[in-house]
Amino acid sequence: MEEINVNERIREIISFYKLSDRQFCIKVGINPSVLGSMFQKGTEPSAKVIKLTLFAFTDISAEWLLRGEGNMLLSENQPQDESTERIAMLVDTITTLQKALNEQTKTNQLQTEQIKKLTGELAMLKNERNIK
């Protein structure tokens, strides 16, 4: 059995689904520079990239992707793993909520800075009134 690395198997997935590298990155949720580094420099994908790939392409066999064993596609005879679908949906929900939380945190920080600024200005105005 010829040794095929994970990068080559990811390239097979891209080819199988007739995607551009950019389309693959968007579907999986990774920066194109990560994929470029994998293909051009030969760096191995992180566990996160592998996980995101398996979540994005639920019909790809993890055994095949990681070890090169078995078929690329899961057998149609296998029941659809509802927990995998649920996990993917939960990951999407968590990602969305995390983005919203990050935006709220930024908004809160800006408002806190504005309050400090206005409090300082108010104190200055009070001091000016007392002096005159």
Task: Describe how the helices and strands are arranged.
Blueprint: H1 6-16, H2 21-28, H3 32-41, H4 47-56, H5 62-67, H6 82-131
Plain-language structure description:
The chain is an all-alpha fold and 132 residues long. It folds into two domains: 78 residues, 434 Repressor (Amino-terminal Domain) (Orthogonal Bundle), CATH 1.10.260; 54 residues. Helices cover 72% and strands 0% of the residues. The protein contains six helices and no strands. It starts with 5 loop residues before the first helix and ends with a helix.
Shape: elongated
State the helix count: 6
- Please name the fourth-level CATH homologous superfamily of the largest domain: lambda repressor-like DNA-binding domains
In which range does the helix fraction lie? Answer: over 70%
The biggest beta sheet reads: none
Poorly predicted ranges (pLDDT <50, ≥5 residues)? Answer: none
DSSP strand tally: 0
Question: Quaternary arrangement of the chains shown?
Answer: single chain
Rounded to the nearest angstrom, the distance between the terminal CA atoms is: 91 Å
- Tell me the series of helices and strands, N- to C-terminal: HHHHHH
Number of domains: 2
Q: What is the name of the CATH architecture of the largest domain?
A: Orthogonal Bundle
Indicate the mean pLDDT.
Answer: 87
CATH topology of the largest domain: 434 Repressor (Amino-terminal Domain)
CATH class of the largest domain: Mainly Alpha
Q: How big a fraction of the residues is strand?
A: under 5%
